[in-house]
Amino acid sequence: MSLENAIARLAPAMPAFEPGHVWLAGAGPGNVGSLTLDVVAAIADADAIVYDALVESSILDAARHGVELHFAGKRGGQASTAQDDITALLISLARKKRRVLRLKGGDPYVFGRGGEEALALAQAGIPFRILPGVTSAFGALASAGIPATMRGLNKAIILATGHAGTEDDLDWAALARTGQPIVVYMGLRNLARITAALVSGGLRPSTPAAVIMAATTSQERVLVSTLEAIADEATAQDFASPALIVVGEIVSMRAELIALERLMRSA
Ligand SMILES: C[S@@+](CC[C@H](N)C(=O)[O-])C[C@H]1O[C@@H](n2cnc3c(N)ncnc32)[C@H](O)[C@@H]1O
Question: Nearest Cα to 225, choosing from 200, 202, 205?
């Protein structure tokens, strides 16, 4: 069967994308292959797409001819578009009876301010729908060969933001005491402070740690190290955003699982 026919058969019975509605959708961690069929259908149908800095912008190639594209993300160190401006844009496009797709990286409800946008749309009386996406933590772990859970190693996994300043920072010591692996979004800039806080909170300095950059894309890079060394190594090796930090014994499974994957593929 051709890919087109397979997609046509599998394409779920999508609700109609009505003029004047806003769909908040997750584009996944970056590569085109991680898009859900629902999101591909929404990209193809939308009259206006308001998008963040997507790791692979070719995702927008699926949009219809003449679509209105509005960039609402942060690029090249520039300030990001103010959240109030983004919600005002969504509301005004919907009031002009456009079918509006708000496209975000990963999942719209994971560290993506999707909840705030949904509340603002509801307050303005605009009908909206959420289309889930693969959040970058789980896309990145699988792509880098690190199991998110592994019997005998962990019973939970923590998703945290490393974006906070010193005053409103997370209680990293409390997270360290759980003994469960931690995946940190937006933490690269604060990596030295986060790793030091986890060590003071009781994690061994030799705890396995990784940084996964541009996960799932052709630019993906993975650095495996220890909690005490990873911040310096990431700086020395020019690791840059978008990147996730992974801390915990699950990282130690990577070498074996990647070797096995390669061996089985070449067998
Ligand atoms: C504003 S948050 C958005 C998270 C998104 N809603 C999600 O569910 O993945 C942006 C952060 O997600 C992480 N991220 C997003 N895409 C990534 C990728 N392809 N590789 C590594 N990290 C990624 C980085 O930590 C980045 O700073």
Answer: 205
Torsion of CA 63, 27, 29, 263, to 10 degrees: -70
Domain boundaries, the chain: 3-131, 136-258
The pLDDT score that the predictor gives to residue 82 is 87
CA 155 to ligand 1 center in whole angstroms: 23
CATH top class, domain 136-258 = alpha beta
Q: How remote is the CA of residue 212 from the centroid of ligand 1, in Å?
A: 10
pLDDT the model gives residue 88: 96
Chosen CATH of 3-131 out of 3.30.160.620, 3.60.10.10, 3.40.1010.10, 3.30.2020.30:
3.40.1010.10
C-beta of 110 in contact with ligand 1 (< 6 A): yes
Instruction: Report the atom number in ligand 1 closest to the C-alpha of 220.
Output: 20
Average pLDDT of the chain, as a whole number: 93
Query: From the candidates 45, 169, 186, 253, which is the catalytic residue?
Result: 186
pTM of the model: 0.94
For residues 203 and 181, what is the distance between their CA atoms, to the nearest angstrom? Answer: 11
